[in-house]
Give the backbone structure.
Amino acid sequence: MGDSRRGQSSTPQSRKIMVIADPTRESAAALQYALSHAVLEQDELILVHVENNGGSWKNAFSSFLRLPSSSSSSSSSTSGSSAGANGNANIANTVQSLASEIGQGEGNFLEQMKRICEIAQPKVRVHTECITMDGIKATAILLHGDKLGVEVIIIGQRRTISSSLLGSRRPGGSLMGSKGVDTAEYLIENSKCTCVGVQKKGQNGGYVLNTKTHKNFWLLA
């Protein structure tokens, strides 16, 4: 009986984790956070891009995906274990070594992000999806997340003064007439599953995380 219980507890349940993949600095930060702090080896990682005619993505990724050295990563206090810190540092170093390839040649940024995931977390199942935005980006993400049955949504977040002071929370979740709605804030407040908004604080400053229950939580890199 004891062996049976021990076997059950030692098998973590697989989760579906969605990372919103865009050719932006914010999306790069979300991917870094997901690989080093959120995704476990039994999880399924889904990189979802919402089709939109954006600008050039090459410079954004090549200039931003420069991670802190392993010495700064070792100062993380989130796991409390040296093994966890070393694992995060190894992932950071892996992504850093691949960062120079982002934006080079004619490769698709989704495939480049997928390759980084597969090398940094080889046991994690990774696949990419493109969906068409029919109206509002946030609602398209929510509908697709519900369809896939994801447990966690991770999205890069750009924090402005107005959104910091006023937020983009609206009674009833209405997006009507809100041209400048913050997609991340809307997802955080209206997603049925856990949604994490990720902001990168410089190269060595770690992350600022936002969820429905935790605001401006500072996590060292």
In short: The beta strands are 16-20, 44-51, 125-132, 152-156, 194-200, 207-210, 217-219. The radius of gyration is 18 Å.
